[in-house]
Description:
Blueprint: E1 3-5, E2 8-11, H1 15-26, E3 31-35, E4 48-49, E5 58-59, H2 60-74, E6 78-80, E7 83-88, E8 94-98, E9 103-106, E10 108-111, E11 115-117, E12 133-134, H3 137-140, E13 148-152, H4 156-165, E14 171-175, H5 185-192, E15 197-200, E16 203-211, E17 214-222, E18 228-232, E19 235-238, E20 242-244, E21 274-276, H6 288-331
The protein binds NADP nicotinamide-adenine-dinucleotide phosphate (NAP).
NADP nicotinamide-adenine-dinucleotide phosphate is lined by residues 51, 120, 152-158, 160, 177-178, 182, 204, 239-242, 285-287.
Amino acid sequence: MEVSDHKLIIVGAGPAGLCAALYAARSEMDAVLLDRGPAGGQLLLTDRVDDYPGIKTIGGMELADAMAEHAESFGTGLTRGDVRSIERDSEGRFVVQTAEGDTFRAPALIMTAGGTHKLLDVPGEAEYSGRGVSYCAICDGAFFKGETIAVIGGGDAAVEEGEFLTRYAEKLYVIHRRDEFRAQKMLQEHLLANPKVEVIWDTVVDEIVGQPTGVSGLKLRNLKTDAESELNVTGVFIFIGFTPNTGVLKEHVDHDESGYMVTDYDMRTSIPGLFAAGDLRSQLVRQITTAVGDATTAVFAADRYLKERHGSQNETQNGSESGFQSMVESQT
Ligand code: NAP
């Protein structure tokens, strides 16, 4: 159980956090980078990244390791810390408490904690989680070799991870609630060109059914016709988006209707000294490239904030020193 003081705390070691750590170290900012798990965030759940400029294709884990090594080479390595609360003390410093019992304090903090996968919230989901219901294709795909499985969702994650799952599955149904995907066109083209894939449009899952051994099927409903049907599958992968990981913040911060943190162009939030970067920030797209861009801006804005704060503190101190000085002088 330790208390340590820093200039900057970075919460979350996905691409945004690792990039923030890199720039903070280069700016000699005395930063600490906290994460409860290994460095990489969503990258660790991504099979292949082929839209990071300059790198035609790279494994998610490989890119995570490279980013972590890069940040560490400049001096900011990952500190293990399962962050449980973030508050401000009377001096306006952020006080971060971890499950391990450690306390980290700093006048500036960048939230780069990303998001947690959303649940479908239908009967059977919790019951069969880990027994046919999964949220990670890389982690669980190989368990479904030669089987018929389904993916739920129509965003980048559903389409990209769905294509990955065709390595193992004999047949892959993609079930989407509308009649078009929101995923990037190129990802869609790859998926739709795959003969193992069949898309079920305008349809939602009402229930995940199974036996003691695991999932055996899905009860489906077409939203346009209201027709109900059953589909035999032994696995279902749910990729329907994220909920931003902002719950540890104990003070109100401006957010959009989905809970994503609202920032200005400099990644400043409504709390002075608090910056947000990456997937938990309200913005049009959430990519690795946008995460690292956000993080770069956030570090420079945090650095400027710290200098301004230091300046105003010095002014106050000098003011009180001269006050003190004049008091001493008046007594002599
Ligand atoms: P997303 O873009 O928010 O897509 C979620 C999908 O799930 C949407 O198609 C949505 O349908 C559907 N959905 C939401 N709630 C649902 C429900 N209750 N029942 C059925 N369907 C539901 O989320 P994501 O695909 O997880 O991606 C999150 C972010 O990460 C995105 O910004 C994405 O660009 C990024 N990402 C990027 C990559 C990449 O660049 N390679 C890979 C993965 C993720 P509607 O379309 O009807 O709303």
